[in-house]
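Troubleshooting: if your tokenizer reports a length mismatch, compare your output against this known-good record of 266 residues.
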Amino acid sequence: MFQEKTKILWNELIKPSYYRLGLKCNNNYSFALPGQFIMLYIPDDMPSLLRRPFSIHKITSSKDKKGDIIEILYKVIGKSTQKLSNQKQDMVIDIIAPLGKGFFLSDSLKRVFIVAGGIGIAPMVFLASFFKEKLNDTSGWKLFLGGKTEQDLLCEQEFINLNMPVYKTTEDGSAGQKGFITQELERQITVTQPELICACGPMGMLKSVSVIAEKYCIPCQVSMETMMACGMGACLACAVEKKESEKYFHVCLDGPVFDAASLTFK
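Known-good structure output:
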């Protein structure tokens, strides 16, 4: 884990309200795992002095071979992300990275279904590219991409470039099948059952994915999206309920990736 000041390489609008941010880091992050996150301090984020959590979207080597480039994908949904969207090239942002526990996949897995809802696609690009490079053969992997409208479907081409089939749904029918991505997921499971499901997105979607995984006895890992104040377990603000006890996990330390069977979804 490093804390460092990074320089903004780009902060580009890719779809209405959605941005991709590239940060030039001084350190090497080749040890980071898909599903881990960074805590980012947004300059002039007043009155809040807290860092904000963002999933690692991509990690690449910089052209000068000095340090790495960390990318995040984010949606403008409040004052802090609005301020982040206004940050320009060459501005400096302070980060702590990488944090949390990522996806834990065996090298022997051949069939993995990735399920992403809206901005939940952010860590999944890192996941797919990481294992494509590691395993070489991800022909049995499939992406299930859902959103309210076509504008909420992101990064499809990234998975096509990795030769992974993409199944799309939108609630308004503006792209792909009309409906919820969990409906398409279950349809495809009845055709070919995966060895593992990995999911990230809204809580309602994660709950539905968990129910489907349990129904078909498929292992399932979910990346939880919660508010965090510190990212390192000090504030205990990111609690999620354990399934078989009255105790809690803390997303920043115990996750953000969990075995879905260990969680209680409200």
